[in-house]
Write the structure tokens for this entry.
Amino acid sequence: MPLLDHFRKPASRVPWRSIHSGWISELATRLNATLPPGYIALDTMSLGGGLEIDIGIEEEDEPPPPATGTSGGTAVAAARAVYVPPAATGTAQYEFPDTMEIRVTNEETGRLVGAVEFVSPGNKDRGAKRDMFLAKCLDNIAGGACVVVVDVITERRANLHNELVTTLGADNLVLPEEVALYAATYRPIIRKRKMNVDVWVNPLQIGAALPTMPLRVVAGLFVPVELEETYAAACRGRKLQV
């Protein structure tokens, strides 16, 4: 199925968020079918700064009053006073980045071994959200995880792949300015006691098929990130075919 422009008609009749949520769900299912035992792929989606916070905080009972007097001839020590913090020095407002990702972890240790990051319009904005997306990708790579980035957002022109490889010192891997859509894999590996990052990058085009990207799990074991098949399944499930 050709890649559609989900920000313009006729494909825009189905919100891009619905397509992306279905896409990462289909992809997580595909990955779990190919991952070796002991590894699991789980999808997560949080847009617009939404957080999963448990607001059902248990209410603490009133502390007992300080004890005085004696009991059985032994003095009862006064209860320790409850600590009340001073007023905060100030308050910072934090805008959380959009998250549309699949995290592949070792089930026994919980260690992140791979991530598939889908770019959102907010990730391509200038400012904190964009910087935090790039920082997250770089932190995962530095921690030894293989990272796949998929950008099919036509609404904004920023190229996060170019910013990533420039930060990594690989200017030769920068895509031409006219390329705004792509899929890229970044695989960290140590060679001759030096950290290297192998990069696979495929420019994407509206109307063209999507590629299959490699995702390293452990050592030399890779699994396929089948973008075309899972994208087609997500579109079919939402009655979107062209």
Notes: The chain has four helices and ten strands. The radius of gyration is 24 Å. Strands lie at 39-46, 70-71, 74-75, 99-106, 112-118, 146-151, 182-191, 194-203, 212-218, 221-226.
